[in-house]
Design brief:
This protein is α+β, with helices and mostly antiparallel strands and about 100 residues long. The protein has four helices and six strands; from the N terminus they run αβαβαββββα. The chain has a single domain, classed as RRM (RNA recognition motif) domain (Alpha-Beta Plaits, 2-Layer Sandwich).
């Protein structure tokens, strides 16, 4: 059984994601194995809102170097959550606009 806080890793705060909050679209980093229904129920449980749609993107690992040492950044999953028109906003993002 997955808990809601295990599915939602962190919110993503970028210029593009903050400009989308006007349309009630919020961006989160989520667990790599999380499905769209699991993400929707976790967002509804944690923030007390109604989710209309969930879009997910698998972000691939990137090669990085530090001097002579080479490696990769980790691969992760991004979720863009759209809320219903009658739903309230997520208060966490309200103070950032």
């Amino acid at each position: 059984m997955k808990f809601a806080h295990d599915i939602i890793v962190r919110p993503l705060i970028t210029e593009k994601s903050l400009s989308a909050t006007a349309d009630k679209r919020y961006t989160f980093e989520v667990a790599k194995d999380a499905t769209k229904p699991e993400i929707a129920s976790a967002i509804e449980e944690v923030f007390g809102v109604k989710v209309a749609d969930v879009n997910t993107i698998n972000m691939k690992k990137k090669p990085k170097r530090m001097g002579v040492h080479a490696g990769y950044r980790k691969a992760w999953k991004k979720a863009i959550v759209t809320l219903t028109a009658d739903s309230k906003t997520i208060e966490f993002f309200d103070g950032m606009i």
